[in-house]
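Example 3.2
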Amino acid sequence: MKTSIFTYTSKGMPVPAYEFHNGGPEVLILGGVHGDEVEGVIAAQELLKHFMTAYPYKLNITLVPQFNLEGVIFKTRGNGNGVDLNRNLPTKDWSPEVKTPRYHPGPFAGSENENKGLIDYLEKKAPIFVLSLHSWHPILNVNGDCHKVAAILAKHTGYKIDDDIGYPTPGCLGTFSGLERHLPTLTYEIERGLSAEKIIEIHVPAILESLKALET
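Structure, written as tokens:
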């Protein structure tokens, strides 16, 4: 395992990444894009524990458990600038409209430090799969060709697979990486309020199993 700085927060704090190299294609796993969605952070941290114990995959995985570090610290959806990082990416549909403060897209597309680092990573590494761990209503939101992984997750969790989250998400990662750059992206919406024990019991094993489908 190699520890690196994936990016920096809006206030300049380093955001750590954990890199596991064992040959094979590149995969990115993000937790904590929204700091108040602790379920995704729990899943990502538990994945880190499993990878540090045993790493059998023929994959190069970059794991960022707390991408929006300031949001995680302050338990807020947005970062230290109050910007929703999943509405701030420079997609074709990005909009400066602030519908509510909770979904603030930022002063301009790609304005936030966290996303600058993410964009740089995606451009340099071009991962074959991006997994973004969130929480909301149970759904596996797919953007791009990631149905093989989604099918395994659905089998283990009973979650439905859908390419439409159900409402507009301008400036989101699924559009930026999955649709506009053809880097298959799955937004995993864990049931909001699910206990840590259930996340560890159900969702972490599902993810561990699904990663095997990415090996070449």
